[in-house]
Design brief:
There is one protein chain. The protein is of the alpha/beta class. The protein has 14 helices and 17 strands. Strand 15, helix 12 and strand 16 form a beta-alpha-beta unit. The longest helix is centred in the C-terminal third of the chain and has 19 residues. It binds zinc ion. Zinc ion binds next to loops. The site of zinc ion has 6 residues, from loops.
Length: about 450
């Protein structure tokens, strides 16, 4: 009865309301349903790349012929997860699925594991994100560690960790036998200026010293070491990548497989990392290489269609920005695309993080030689304009249009046929944009 009601009310995927109602009426509903998973319960957490990584994993599971329940669209707190799981169950409260693939907010994982016990926990990376909501990175790391401890009392999960992230690779230290590390041995950029790296986050070793690096890939990701002897662990899943503005070729080596290569039709090093973490999950589940390749390639094609739209016959690429490191990686891609025009939309609603000072940590200086007009929009359009001025963009090239619809109209009218428009919105700006853009498709 409850399930039928929820299903009727929950036609909109990604909403939290049905989950909220379900949890009120039946507090253990999530636990009850997820326990019915036939194979593994998989959790993906971390600051950046959760949605894309889970998308890749879902693609691979599908290619492997598995039925999967997955909370798509980033509804990654308990109510959103409950909505997703309930909407996949039948009216007899049966969840007929091989895997549950749950993308979980890094600060909520510790609560989620009270309701179900993951078999595998994958952590992508930990960057400063929305300081005003979650506090410092170490607090987040501690919460993930608590989640791992809690789970391990019932059944120790496999823990898949990014070896290149000093904070992530130190997680779950009480359970070293359950770790699998993944990381890049080397990264080659094609047609991109290698000298410009992202701002390096200040990260200290547990001994208090600042880390040194043999190689920095982006942010605090790279081959780090400390004078106390603590250093990047040697990954079991090792990769190299050649990456350019449109795609990445990734060559993977792991203990139990021959070397293999995958091509990802998605821009940027951050997506190469997302693919590598998904591959690590797939290898952990024993999925064969053919299905891994098929799944990754399918997902990147679907993603390409979803994120590249034509509005008023102009090519538009939308990339969410929400923290300095992620934004800088997107800017790197935009900067190297000579046919790219730019619309940046900054909101400061609760879900964006109220504090927009992070804009000052993102490397907008990458755009200092950009000589086309940049349109800035959203609630904090003027803050963004000031930031761009300081980054070296001429005032006459910055146009402020707070209203998102008008800003989009203006942007589309200035994009030439051979050009494309990059839209960089914060989270709630993206939601606003999605409502408006259907009028331009
Ligand atoms: Zn140290």
């Amino acid at each position: 009865m409850l399930i039928r009601f929820i299903k009727l009310s929950g036609s909109g995927a990604g909403t939290n309301l049905p989950g909220k109602i379900a949890r009120k009426i039946s507090p253990d509903i999530l636990s009850y349903l997820v326990k019915q998973t036939k194979k593994e319960i998989l959790v993906v957490t971390g600051t950046n790349g959760k949605t894309t990584t889970s998308g890749f994993i879902a693609g691979i599971l599908k290619a492997d012929g598995r039925k999967t329940v997955h909370n798509r669209r980033g509804a990654n707190m308990l109510t959103g997860i409950t909505t997703a799981v309930v909407s996949e169950s039948n009216i007899f409260a049966e969840l007929n699925t091989d895997n549950c693939l749950l993308e979980i907010d890094e600060a909520y994982l510790v609560k989620a594991v009270d309701e179900f016990t993951p078999d595998v926990i994958l952590v992508t990376n930990l960057f400063r994100d929305q300081l005003d909501r979650y506090g410092e990175l170490n607090t987040t790391a501690k919460k993930i560690d608590q989640a791992i401890d809690k789970t391990s009392k019932i059944k120790p999960p496999k823990i898949l960790l990014n070896a290149d992230d000093p904070i992530v690779s130190s997680l779950g230290e009480n359970f070293p036998e359950n770790h699998t590390f993944y990381g890049f041995e080397d990264i080659k950029f094609v047609n991109q200026d290698e000298n410009i790296s992202s701002p390096q986050e200040t990260t200290n070793c547990k001994c208090g010293e600042r880390y040194n690096y043999d190689k920095v890939f982006y942010g605090h990701l790279g081959h780090f070491y400390c004078s106390c002897g603590h250093k990047r662990p040697i990954p079991q899943v090792r990769a190299t990548t050649v990456t350019d503005v449109n795609n990445s070729k990734i060559i993977i080596n792991s203990q139990n497989h021959e070397e293999f290569t995958v091509n990802i039709n998605m821009p940027g090093l951050y997506n190469a990392y997302n693919a590598l973490s998904a591959i690590t999950m797939a290898l952990e589940l024993g999925i064969n290489i053919e299905n891994i390749k098929k799944g990754l390639e399918n997902y990147s094609t679907v993603f390409g269609r979803a994120e590249t739209l034509y509005m008023n016959h102009k090519k538009v690429i939308t990339q969410l920005i929400k923290n300095p490191i992620g934004a800088t990686e997107v800017l790197r891609t935009v900067k190297d695309d000579f046919n790219g025009r730019l619309l940046i939309i900054i909101n400061d609603n609760y879900a964006d993080g109220r504090d927009v000072s992070w804009l000052w940590d993102a490397n907008f200086e990458l755009l200092s030689n950009y000589d086309k007009t940049v349109i800035v929009s959203g609630i904090r359009a003027s803050d963004m304009a000031v930031r761009l001025k300081y980054a070296g963009i001429k005032s006459e090239n910055i146009i402020i249009i707070e209203d998102i619809r008008k800003a989009l109209e203006k942007s589309l009218s200035t994009v030439k046929e051979e050009e494309k428009l990059y839209i960089l919105p914060t989270y709630t700006a993206l939601l606003d944009l999605q409502k408006i853009q259907r009028n331009f498709l």
